[in-house]
Design brief:
rod-shaped, about 20% strand, MHC_I-like_Ag-recog_sf, eight-stranded antiparallel sheet, about 60% helix, 10 strands, glycoprotein, alpha+beta, about 400 residues, two-stranded antiparallel ribbon
Length: about 400
């Protein structure tokens, strides 16, 4: 028993250092593990701090980007607001301009209405004066000294004149008229045509061409063309001479500057003569007419208001003193005044080249020619009170 205890004691004595060392080792290991754990914790904390710092940096960058985007958006908003303000201002300016334009239109309308009334009064005075002169001329021509002989020649009695502006019509015309009578009547027809719808105005300037073709008239040209600027004749053409002639001395300056002017006008008027000659024969067939005196007329031209720079134009035809075909420049449509005019209307409507030519002439070329003639004839037209 004692030996057993002795053995145990010796074993304890022998293992005590080892156990102590082992215990120390375990403690050291534990301390190392604790230290490692501390180091790991510290590293983890540092890693977390680094991550937090990186996240902070990223967030700051994102914040900066957002701020930059906000600045860009604010600038865009400012631009949009400025554009909206500009648009609003432009709209206000447009409204003001529209109101001013409407006021100008109203003033022009009132001014035109007043000038039309004034022209109408002048036209009535001129027509009355012309009618009185014509009645005297007709009485002298139609009622010669040998009244009985005249009654035998013209059983229908004294001829009657019906005026429908801007044309003149004659009814009860004999089939074999006296040449002096017809010449007097045609002169009167041309005179009344020239003082038709558009009278003299100190503000509105006009350029008009009158073409008259006649049939059944002896000792008188079959075709006459006359050009008028502010109611002053400046060019004349007839089928007898077949040559355009100047009627104003100041036109010599124009022909010096434009040597081909007379040749060009002669060529154009010769073309009108040929067309009118064919048209009047066609119209006589349309109206079932075989004899007697007949006239086919055209008035074409333009107007320019030197106060407000407004323009207008017209193109109309007449047959035997009555309206035949009229062009509406606002709608560019033809209006047939008689049933016989429908075929002519359809021919013009389907002729696109003619429509384009008329539109260019009445809205541009005619106005350019008018202004050019006003420059050349300025001194003469001023003396006659036709230029202000």
């Amino acid at each position: 028993m004692h030996y057993y205890y002795y053995i145990l004691h010796r074993l304890n004595a022998l293992t005590a250092p080892w156990l102590s060392a082992r215990q120390d080792t375990e403690e050291e290991e534990e301390e190392e593990e604790e230290e490692e754990e501390v180091v790991v914790v510290v590293v983890e904390e540092e890693v977390e701090e680094v991550k937090e710092e990186e996240e902070v940096v990223v967030v700051e960058e994102e914040v900066e980007e957002v701020e930059e985007e906000v600045v860009v958006v604010e600038e865009e908003v400012e631009e949009v607001e400025e554009e909206e303000e500009v648009v609003v201002v432009e709209e206000e300016v447009e409204e003001v301009e529209e109101e001013e334009e409407e006021m100008r239109k109203r003033r022009r309308w009132r001014s035109r209405r007043w000038r039309r009334k004034r022209r109408r009064r002048k036209e009535e005075e001129v027509v009355e004066e012309v009618e009185e002169q014509e009645e005297e001329e007709v009485e002298e021509v139609v009622d010669p000294p040998d009244a009985a002989e005249d009654d035998d020649m013209f059983p229908t009695g004294k001829r009657r004149r019906e005026v429908t502006s801007p044309y003149v019509t004659y009814s009860d015309v004999p089939t074999a008229p006296n040449s002096m009578e017809v010449m007097a009547l045609i002169r009167l027809l041309l005179l009344l045509s020239l003082v038709g719808c558009h009278g003299v105005s100190s503000v509105i300037h006009s350029l008009k061409y009158f073409y008259t073709a006649s049939s059944g008239v002896s000792n008188f040209p079959e075709f006459v063309g006359v050009g008028m600027v502010d109611e002053l004749q400046f060019i004349h053409y007839d089928s007898n001479s077949q040559k355009a002639e100047l009627k104003q001395s100041w036109m010599d300056r124009l022909t010096r500057d434009d040597p081909q002017y007379l040749e060009r006008e002669t060529r154009n008027l010769l073309g009108e003569q040929q067309r009118f000659k064919a048209d009047i024969e066609t119209l006589k067939k349309s109206f079932n007419q075989t004899g007697g005196v007949h006239t086919y007329q055209r008035m074409s031209g333009c107007e320019w208001d030197d106060e407000d720079d407004t323009t207008d134009g017209y193109d109309q035809f007449g047959y035997d003193g009555k309206d035949f075909l009229v062009l509406n420049l606002k709608t560019w449509t033809w209006t047939a005044r008689t049933s016989q005019a429908f075929s002519t209307k359809l021919r013009y409507v389907h002729n696109r080249d003619l429509t384009a030519h008329l539109k260019n002439y009445l809205t541009k070329e005619c106005l350019d020619d008018l202004k050019k003639l006003l420059v050349y004839g300025n001194s003469t037209l001023q003396r006659t009170g036709r230029v202000t």
